[in-house]
Amino acid sequence: MDTPTVVVTQHEATDVEALLTEAQRELEAGHYETAAQKFEFVVDEAQHPAERARAMLGLGTALDAAGRPEQALVIYERYVTEAPEGSQRDEVRVRLVRLLTYLEKYADAAAIAAQVRTAQAALGDVALLASLALDALAQDRQKDAELAIARGRSVIEAEMFDRLDPIPLDVAALYFALGELRRKRAEEISFDPLPPDFSAALEMRCQWMLDAQSAYSQAMRGRDAHWSAMAGVSVGRLYHELHQELMAMERPSAADTTQRRELFDGALRLRYSILLTKAASMLRATLALQDKDRAPGVWAARAKQTLADIEAAEREEQRALSLLPYSKAQLQQVLDDLAARGNSSVPKK
């Protein structure tokens, strides 16, 4: 006879089925920590593999919902190792992919994604494709990332996931990957050495940046502190790094005297300080979105540090401008003169 395990304690004797039912009730009520304790007890006490598998699945779910991804990861990995092959095992693999992607372990996530025979749900497909895209981007395989993202966006559009508010976190992950792809495309346009057509290069760089920002903003629609912070930091860095590159680029041969160099540098600072303003604005908005009821995550801390760096750069720009023997009106006139000569950014060499 195949009978349920009976657990005997100093207070009572209860069969595992009743304990599982009780733990599931706590889970559905949102009492995740209590549910996790009850499921863990069953995992330790159950004698039958099927009972232990059910308890492990419940325990992983409770830990995941309680915001303990590292612990949930361990349980899900154990489930995949111990539980029999089947549709439930594929579902747990999808959960593993989600957690590994969240923890930025993209190579591990992609390796498990390749083992999934069927995600059984459209959102699962999006989660798998997001992990493959982020792993490809981490290895700078942009074509592979582009294909995975395109497939994911097709699923999103077909299922109209992008019309939900908030969007599912799997969708947020895919949009974040899209932002990362566009960020890489933007950063491929360099100003060292100075390109022959500076204006066209700057326009293309800015267009990729705006496209990346659009994708990152979509990721923020998941209203998740983690993905929002990652996206916000990425946007802030886009603007900050462009500002650094522009200020460090080679000066034109026409700036051949101290006066001309000062005028040129001052005009650049005046024009491109807006990049720092945009970066700081995005990071302040990102930090305002962080969940006040939860401890700040790693990316929230990075957002604060990035904002501090940008604010320091803003102060340095103002200090440098104040030291020049020219007013902002005079510097603006230099920019206007350049524009009037048909070169709206910098004089050509």
Descriptive report:
The chain is mainly alpha-helical and 349 residues long. It is built from 14 helices and two strands. The protein has helices at residues 16-28, 32-45, 49-65, 69-82, 87-102, 106-113, 122-138, 142-159, 169-187, 198-220, 225-248, 258-289, 298-323, 328-340, and strands at 6-8, 13-15. The protein has a two-stranded antiparallel sheet. A hairpin with a 4-residue loop joins strand 1 and strand 2 (13-15). Helix 3 runs antiparallel to helix 4, helix 9 (169-187) runs antiparallel to helix 10 (198-220) and helix 11 runs antiparallel to helix 12 (258-289). The termini are far apart. 38% of the residues are buried.
